[in-house]
User: Fold Peroxidase from Carex littledalei.
Amino acid sequence: MAASYRLVAMACFLALLVCTTNGQLSMKFYARTCPNVEQIVLSVMTEAVRKEPRMGASILRLVFHDCFVQGCDGSILLDNAPGLASEKDSVSNKNTARGFEVIDAIKAQVERACNATVSCADILALAARDSVSLLGGPKWPVPLGRRDSTTANQTEADNLPSPFENITSLISKFAAKGLNAQELTVLSGSHTVGSSICFAFRTRVWGTEPNINPPFAIECRKNCPASGGDNNLSPLTTPNTNRFGNQYFKNLMIGRGLLHSDQELFKGGAGGPTDRFVRFYATNGGAFARDFAAAMVRMGNLGPKTGNQGEIRLNCRRVN
Assistant:
């Protein structure tokens, strides 16, 4: 079985090389124009995660929500403006998307070093990679050369995968982006770090879902009452170590997924289309790290703007 997963990972990397070439992204895109960009991003992210480990998970969530709407183009970073409805105000992001000030801080330093050269979309991609690495997860090569969108799509952002979705819907939404069921599973492993607001999991822990560990439900209710406290935070994976690993998958196997959408990945006795992937990653942390890195590179190639498309924003929050 392990050999088959290695073949899948290798196939993803080979496909990735083709996509990178066709998409005009390159590992050396800023080699001459801004050679220190990766060091600048890492420096700011190191301080941000040191101050608040949760920020790493927040930045990782931002890149997901960016790439799934219009491609990886930094559109999630845009504020409201005349004729532009911000994705920040979508159902999926309002009051939950965070970390924008960290991207602003990185952009300010990058602009001082290399004015009007590095896109906000590339900064976000690098910051997400460093977030995972700083929390003890894998580090992967980030092909660069994305340009920033001059538009946003709040309606599309409203339809991002939600914590209330079933496995059929999740597989469908990922497939629409060219990502398969295994990539859905491994990318969901990002929930090994971070927190969720009570509103997103109240119906799971107070309802009648069969696929939940009863003591776990009771435990979660302490910080998420039947009414009120919508914004109370609980860790997505327990124990909450703020370290990137495969505990998330181990939890799913015993009904301790916090979100309904998380637990949908593992049906247990009922069986499910992603059960085998959950079992594999629960027992093989090295494979999870490797495949997560490969899937992140693949996701980073979702519809990037390159060449003369878009622009290099001077301020990530607004169009030039």
